[in-house]
UniProtKB/TrEMBL annotation:
Function: Cleaves proteins, imported into the mitochondrion, to their mature size. While most mitochondrial precursor proteins are processed to the mature form in one step by mitochondrial processing peptidase (MPP), the sequential cleavage by MIP of an octapeptide after initial processing by MPP is a required step for a subgroup of nuclear-encoded precursor proteins destined for the matrix or the inner membrane.
CDD domains the record matches: M3A_TOP
MF terms (GO), sorted A to Z: metal ion binding; metalloendopeptidase activity
Stretch list, region Disordered: 85-104
GO biological process, alphabetically ordered: peptide metabolic process; proteolysis
Record flagged with keyword Hydrolase: yes
Recorded family membership: Belongs to the peptidase M3 family.
GO cellular component: mitochondrial intermembrane space
Keywords of this entry: Hydrolase, Metal-binding, Metalloprotease, Protease, Zinc
Cofactor(s) the protein needs: Zn(2+)
Designated name of the protein: Peptidase M3A/M3B catalytic domain-containing protein
Annotated coiled-coil segments of the chain: none
Source species of the chain: Jaapia argillacea MUCL 33604
């Protein structure tokens, strides 16, 4: 029985201190530095792939560095000790700096180029050949082939500092707006506890989502919503010049890198993406905007009709403004797809999680076996040994931690998966097995349906990490193209909208009543309400990101932001002095620069994979097995486009995506 088997690898220990984090990080970095120095000193005769001292050794060095430091950098997310969290953050900074410096080493890059000339594809496996090509590409993209790196290093340092300042402004923003109780008519009392009451009937409201978003959604007075919107939209105006500087620095870096340089930052970023040219990205965004325009117009007109019913100003305003959208979107949902009772009463968190692990364990052929008595970072954390079914004697997949009620997570229901230790092949045979963790802030009393959707998505990322089986750690699990990485998780969200699944994961409420079919129907019906407007918003954000990373720096960013909003997302901003909403588009400085389109591309791929593989039967274990073998198991060892095409037995189609959304194309 799997339950009685002992995993071939022990889970991490979680007893580090500030001092041990510092020492372990320093040791790991020193070991990796020593390896690189030894490789750089190799003679030409020793520079072949099979040598313990080159490409394979470089890959192993990466893996050992990740394995040694993964738990150390993870503490910042979960440790109750602030000093330990700070030490973990510093360790991450030190590792990042080391990686950047290592990637630019010209001596290593020159040896790589020499070695490549002496190797043919026939000598290597597909993954080994991909490793060699990718290491060479990474070196070129890092500037290792430049005669002088001085200007590049200066620009990259400055860009990092500017992005850090922009993000710091986000974190430290403390603006506020004053409203009277009368102006806040319609906002439920439950939200008022988050506001500061400065005198009788006067409230001070910060620009934090928990404080100001209820105004957008519930305030009955249009002027109140507008004032709140204008204040919120302008709260980070201080980022205007900083963002323009960051965009300019990226343009300059792109020109320096490569041979003879990249035309734009989008050329640089998309080189390693699934959609690998700017023209393809532009075409994808443009075609989807066209295909969704009809549905978006219908959605907008539905909200406008509701506005006519509710607002009695004379003369009547026949325009749907941005400060109207959340308010009428909520009202439309309540009117057309009302939820008659609280679904949370039927979804006890522990029960839901156990059933989801069981459902997808059966679908993908894995067992989650609880492990007790092992140290974790919190007594609430659950540890599982995960085993592949029917894969011979040594069928261990890895370890999975579930931290479902983490008090450090800043937002309700925020959840994400971290790869603590990657999987890879060991030189003498055998494997280093992956260790992954889901950290969330679910309610102990029960899960909202949004929480269930979130858990399904994140469990998809967990499976991507656990069921990947690559030779090299750099290709493990979610180490795939950035415009594909979210797709497996997004695909798993579909199970949260299946009536049979909802019945399986629900438990009786306190009165013993089972989840009624009417409530299931109401939940499912709410899924794609105003779907056109939702996705058009994603497209306008992706288009803005694309344009600002392909232009010459002369574009008026505020004007562009507001024009794209109206022309693509179909919701109007009627303001004499357009507001700098782009300064709050945090993705531009948080790793999604020139790649925000990847959100939509992942939605698109997820819909294609679900409809093709599971649309007829979401419990089809044969389709689940195919998904593991063709998509999850290879990780990044093959091009994402090839993985998806093999699973779909053809190309992804926009028609399949639109059909999945229930959208009719004009």
């Amino acid at each position: 029985m799997t339950e009685s088997k002992t995993p071939p690898q022990s889970p991490p220990t979680w007893s580090d201190t500030v001092d041990s984090i510092k020492k372990s990080t320093a040791k790991a970095l020193t070991n990796h530095q020593d390896l690189l120095d030894r490789i750089a000193a190799l003679s030409a005769s020793a520079q072949d792939f099979s040598s313990v001292s080159y490409f394979a050794a470089l890959a192993l060095g990466e893996a050992e560095l990740d394995t040694a430091t993964g738990p150390l950098t993870f503490y910042q997310r979960v440790s109750a000790d602030e000093n330990v969290r700070n030490a973990s953050r510093q360790a991450e900074k030190d590792i990042k700096k080391h990686r950047e410096e290592s990637s630019r080493r010209q001596d290593i890059f020159q040896i790589q180029q020499t070695v490549q000339k002496n190797i043919s594809p026939q000598e290597l496996s597909e993954e080994q050949w991909r490793l060699m090509k990718r290491m060479l590409l990474d070196g070129a993209r890092a500037g290792a082939g430049l005669k002088s790196q001085d200007e590049l290093i200066k620009l990259e340092k400055s860009l990092s500092e500017v992005c850090s300042e922009i993000n710091g402004n986000f974190d430290n923003e403390s603006g506020e707006i004053i409203f009277t109780a009368k102006e806040l008519d319609g906002v439920p009392d439950a939200f008022k506890q988050n506001w500061e009451k400065i005198s009788d009937g006067i409230y001070k409201i910060k620009h934090k989502p928990l404080e100001i978003f209820p105004i957008f959604e519930y305030a009955n007075i249009p002027v109140t919503r507008r004032r709140a919107f204008e204040s919120y939209e302008s709260r980070l105006k201080t980022n205007e010049d900083l963002l323009r500087t960051a965009l300019d620095q990226r343009r300059r870096i792109a020109k320096i890198l490569g041979s003879p340089g990249y035309d734009t930052w989008v050329d640089y970023v998309t080189q390693v993406m699934m959609v690998n040219t700017p023209d393809k990205v532009k075409g994808f965004l443009s075609q989807l905007a066209t295909d969704l325009a009809k549905q978006g117009t219908t959605d907008r007109d539905n909200l406008l009709a509701l506005k006519r019913e509710n607002e009695t100003e004379d003369p009547r305003d026949e325009t749907l403004y941005l400060w109207d959208f959340r308010y009428y979107d909520r009202k439309y949902m309540n009117k057309n797809t009302p939820i008659s009772e609280n679904p949370q009463d039927y979804f006890q968190t522990e029960f839901v999680v156990a059933r989801i692990l069981e459902i997808h364990g059966d679908l993908l052929g894995v067992n989650f076996v609880p492990i007790s008595g092992k140290e974790t970072w919190n007594s609430d954390v659950k540890l599982f040994a995960v085993w592949n079914r029917n894969e011979g004697e040594d069928n261990f997949a890895g370890y999975c931690y579930l931290d479902l009620y983490n008090a450090l997570e800043p937002e309700p229901s925020h959840a994400s998966v971290s790869t603590i230790i990657p999987g890879y092949s060991l030189p003498g045979g055998g494997r280093n097995y992956p260790v992954v963790a889901l950290v969330a802030k679910f309610s102990r009393s029960g899960m909202r349906h949004n929480d269930i959707v979130t858990f399904f998505r994140e469990i998809g990322h967990i499976f991507h990490d656990l069921l990947s089986c690559t030779e090299f750690s750099r290709f493990h699990g979610t180490s795939v193209a950035g415009d594909f990485v979210r797709a497996p998780g997004m695909m798993f969200e579909n199970w949260a909208w299946n009536s049979d699944v909802l019945k399986k994961i629900s438990n009786p409420d306190k009165s013993g009543k089972r989840l009624p079919d009417t409530l299931i129907d109401q939940i499912i019906a709410s899924r794609y309400v105003n779907v056109g407007l939702f996705y058009l918003r994603q497209l306008y954000l992706g288009t803005f990101d694309f344009i600002v990373h392909t232009d010459d720096g002369t574009t008026d960013l505020t004007k562009l932001w507001n024009e794209l909003r109206e022309t693509i997302s179909l919701v109007k901003v009627e303001i004499n002095n357009p507001l700098p909403g782009h300064t709050q588009f945090r993705h531009l400085t948080r790793g999604y620069d020139a790649a925000y389109y990847g959100h939509m591309h992942s939605f698109f791929l997820a819909a294609n994979m679900f409809e093709t593989g599971f649309g007829g039967n979401p419990f089809d274990s044969k389709a689940g097995s195919n998904f593991v073998e063709l998509v999850l198991k290879p990780g990044g060892s093959r091009e994402a486009a090839a993985l998806v095409k093999d699973f779909l037995k053809g190309d992804s189609k926009l028609e399949t995506f639109l059909k999945h959304l229930g959208v009719q194309v004009a």
